[in-house]
Design brief:
- The protein has 205 residues and is an alpha/beta fold.
- It contains 8 helices and 7 strands, in the order H-H-H-E-H-E-H-E-E-H-E-H-E-H-E.
- The chain has helices at residues 3-17, 25-28, 32-45, 62-69, 81-94, 130-139, 162-168, 185-188; strands at 52-56, 73-78, 99-102, 115-121, 141-153, 173-180, 195-203.
- Strands 3-2-1-4-5-7-6 form a 7-stranded mixed sheet, with helices on both faces.
- Helix 5 links the parallel strand 2 and strand 3.
- The longest helix is centred in the first third of the chain and has 15 residues, at 3-17.
- S-adenosylmethionine binds at residues 10, 14, 27, 57-59, 62, 78-80, 83, 104-106, 121-123.
């Protein structure tokens, strides 16, 4: 499928999902137990000093707001204007200043080497040519910047295995750790039986 058609269809799909996206416990983070599980994960894996963080495919901005709460200077990008509208409203309601921009994550139009960390939850699996995409993302990181990729292989409904991500990482990324997230029901609002994980990698040069 040609790229502009693929992007148009993805945008239409996610624009339609935006109003109800936060109904899922791990999306809206309305339950304090789920919210605190995500906060703990991010506190443990993001750099301890507040810095610039990019949330790629930020959706309704739940993780963006959580990271702003932790003191980070957050930028969020997403293809869907309806998702970005929700994210802006959420940041405003929480009184955080976050720069949300409508953008294709496959080719982010952002200056290189400016982020201390990049977080991407549940988008990479859906992007074609993931090795090229990961190279572009790693170029946005300062040296020693950190990539946190939260993905899964959701039984029969698609996804990625962690090995597929690790294989696609550019050579500039090292110190790779794969953390299992399936065994943490509080992250998901209940027990899960499929494969969920986070890949951590640092840009070393
Ligand atoms: C499953 S949602 C995840 C949202 C958010 N990361 C979260 O975990 O709550 C996938 C998000 O990726 C966005 N998206 C899909 N294709 C994209 C693309 N090519 N560039 C940027 N965002 C995209 C969608 O609009 C949607 O908000």
């Amino acid at each position: 499928m040609d790229n502009s058609k693929r992007l148009r269809e993805a945008r239409q799909h996610w624009d339609k999902e935006a109003a109800r996206f936060d109904d899922e416990p791990d999306h809206g983070l309305h339950d304090p137990v789920v919210r605190s599980a995500w906060k703990n994960l991010l506190v443990n894996w993001l750099p301890s000093h507040p810095g610039s963080v990019l949330d790629i495919g930020c959706g309704t901005g739940s993780l963006s707001v959580l990271m702003a709460e932790m003191g980070h200077n957050v930028t969020g990008i997403d293809l869907s204007p309806a998702m970005i509208a929700q994210a802006n409203a959420k940041a405003r309601a929480a009184n955080y200043s976050i720069s949300f921009q409508v953008m294709d994550a496959s080719r982010p139009d952002l200056a290189p080497q400016q982020f201390k960390a990049i977080v991407c939850r549940h988008l990479l699996w859906a992007l074609p040519d993931r090795a090229r995409v990961l190279e572009r993302w790693s170029n946005l990181l300062v040296p020693n910047g950190r990539l946190l990729l939260i993905e899964g292989y959701w039984n029969n409904s698609g996804g990625l295995y962690s090995e597929q991500i690790v294989e696609a990482l550019p050579s500039s990324c090292s110190r790779v750790i794969v953390k299992n997230l399936s065994d943490y029901p509080n992250l998901w609002g209940g027990a899960v039986t499929d494969e969920r994980y986070m890949v951590k990698a640092d840009r070393v040069y």
